[in-house]
Design goal:
172 residues; alpha+beta; 2 domains
Length: 172
């Protein structure tokens, strides 16, 4: 590992070359990305991966080669919910430019902690019942395909279901 690698350095690097990405269709799932080009950039990202691993944060390193006159772009991604939270918590005191975005992501992760495990939970009996049903919950229209895994038949019925849940005080 390079001498001088610490959270303050990493925060400065993240301020200049990093990003917080909102990922997912149904829920905001934060991801961290750090980008560099060239061989020197690749080596720097390897040093950062080594530092993060020592701190207990798993990250993925890959590259994108778009061809032509563009340089190969190397990227480091932190994708796990708990590790994104740990990374942001550690760099937050040293951030200047991305401080607001990091604060928003940390607040969101604190407000909705269960969303971090939503993709990894086991199927419950209630979820299986939704998968077995053959009609829309709102209007009763039969689904056309047998593999339907939804509760409503159309966007309009979905919006009706959302508004019904909001009126009953349930989180959508």
């Amino acid at each position: 590992m390079a001498i001088g690698m610490n959270w303050a350095y990493l925060a400065g690097f993240f301020d200049g070359e990093g990003t917080i990405v909102a990922f997912g269709k149904s829920a905001f799932t934060p991801r961290i990305g750090l980008y560099q080009t060239g061989e020197r950039g690749r080596k720097l990202l390897e040093i950062i991966v080594e530092f993060l691993a020592k701190e207990g944060i798993h990250s993925n390193q890959s590259f994108v080669n778009r061809g032509g006159v563009r340089k190969t772009c190397h990227l480091l991604l932190i994708m796990r919910w708990s590790e994104v939270r740990k990374f942001l918590s550690c760099v937050f005191p040293h951030l200047h430019i991305k401080r607001l975005e990091a604060q928003d992501a940390l607040r969101y992760m604190k407000m909705y902690p269960k969303l971090g495990v939503a993709y990894y939970r086991k199927t419950t009996p209630a979820m299986m019942e939704v998968r077995r049903q053959k009609t829309c919950n709102i209007c009763g229209t039969p689904f056309r395909d047998r593999t339907a895994r939804r509760q409503t038949c159309s966007r309009k019925c979905y919006l009706d279901l959302v508004s019904l849940r909001r009126r009953n005080g349930k989180v959508v």
